[in-house]
Amino acid sequence: ASGIGITPTLSLVFNYAGKKRINVVWACRDPGLVEYILHKFDVGAITKKSYAFIFYTGTRELALPKDLPMNVFVFNGRPHLEHTITGIVQTIHSGDGLPEEMYAAKEKISNAPFEKRMKTALRRVVEIYEKDEMFEYAVEETEKAAAQASSDLLLGSDRTATTVAVSLDENDPEASPLMISPVDKVPQGEVSLKGLDSMIHEFLGGIGEYSRSDIETFFREIDSDGSGFIDRDEFDDFISMITSKDMTGSSHSLDLAMERSLAMPRATGHSVVSSVQSQQDNHLLGDESTIEYVHNLVKNSDIDNPLEDWSVFYCGGSNETKSILKRVTKKYGVDYAVEKFDW
Questions:
Q1: How far apart are CA 283 and CA 89, in angstroms?
Q2: Are residues 220 and 228 in contact, defined by beta-carbon separation less than 8 angstroms?
Q3: C-beta separation of 26 from 53 below 8 A
Q4: Mind spelling out the 3-state secondary structure of the chain?
Q5: Contact 216, 193 (CB under 8 A)
Q6: What predicted TM-score, i.e. pTM, was given to this entire model?
Q7: Per residue of the chain (343 residues), what is the pLDDT tens digit?
Q8: I want to staple 277 with a disulfide (CB 3.0 to 4.6 A). Which of 19, 92, 143, 264 is the partner?
Q9: CA distances from residue 331 to 106, 153, 169, 305 in whole angstroms, order as listed
Q10: Residue pair 91/71 in contact by the 8 Å Cβ criterion
Q11: How far is CA 211 from each of CA 122, 177, 181, 219, rounded to the nearest angstrom?
Q12: What is the dihedral of CA 203, 208, 211, 214, to 10 degrees?
């Protein structure tokens, strides 16, 4: 689908939910529409046996839900349609990384206690990122929050003169304000509660929902001296503790679920806004190897048309997209239909 074409597409998905796999590939440049769909509809649950790929081509940064389902991917940029289609076909045909497995993994994570999710996630994340990068990011976010608090005070905000309320998550109605004092000097090179929360969102995007109480309890566990800030020694000691052999006894199934769920939002180029990323998940977006896989599948199959059960349905007004899809579906012997927008 493209643009407003997502409306009939979702109607189709609703009608066939639980009966057929309907993988959604949607390109849209309207940030408001993308945000509305993601906040209004539980796209992950509707498509839990399918994938939903959203290619955002707008310029404004999206305000995404903080806990996207694992089978819902949001990318910056336009899709390479042949790569994407063959990537989906290969993954489902091979059974490696099926969307229902991703959805089940997310459910397992959501049902685990926050502290267990966090510690399991951190053990995985430190295998990907350097501790320096994580801590420095948290320090930068702490400084930004303090600077913003001071700026708001100078601009004559309606907030009180001694404290400024900064929401831990403005999209979370249950989140109470995080109080930051622009008057008190933030210790250089240390991390506030706001800085820790920002680091979690940046590096551990797949841990699921959590409350203010959860993050405060977790913060106090790291802040061993009770100063209200986390210094580098406290951060290193905490990471060393949770990665020690004595602390790695979480369930294997939760480890696997967390490994598949951790978001990698710091990608560049055709950047990922929020997605599930692992070595085997890279084929979901498709590349020349997935084209080769599907080509060989069609060429070497013992049956006339191994993709007979597949079809492509396009909802949108882009003539270029229609032309590309017509060529790709003809190449692989896949049925193709278009919802016309000339009414």
A1: 10
A2: no
A3: yes
A4: CEHHHHHHHHHHHHHHCCCCCCCEEEEECCHHHHHHHHHHCCHHHHCCCCCEEEEECCCCCCCCCCCCCCCEEEEECCCCHHHHHHHHHHHHHHCCCCHHHHHHHHHHHHHCCHHHHHHHHHHHHCCCCCHHHHHHHHHHHHHHHHHHHHHHHHCCCCCCCCCEEEECCCCCCCCCEEEECCCCCCCCCCECHHHHHHHHHHHCCCCCCCCHHHHHHHHHHHCCCCCCCECHHHHHHHHHHHCCHHHCCCCHHHHHHHHHHCCCCCCCCCCEEECCCCCHHHHHCCCHHHHHHHHHHHHCCCCCCCCCCCEEEEECCCHHHHHHHHHHHHHHCCEEEEECCCC
A5: yes
A6: 0.59
A7: 999 999 888 888 888 877 788 889 999 999 999 999 888 877 656 666 788 889 999 998 888 776 677 778 888 889 999 999 998 998 888 877 666 666 565 555 556 677 777 777 777 778 778 899 999 999 999 999 888 877 777 765 554 444 443 444 444 434 433 444 444 567 889 999 999 988 887 887 656 667 788 888 889 989 999 999 999 999 999 888 877 755 444 444 444 444 444 443 333 233 344 433 333 444 567 889 999 999 999 888 877 888 988 999 999 989 999 999 999 999 999 999 998 765 5
A8: 264
A9: 36, 62, 47, 12
A10: no
A11: 18, 12, 22, 12
A12: -70
In terms of Cα–Cα distance, which of 314, 315, 316, 317 is closest to 326? 314
In the block, residue with structure tokens 């839900």: 65
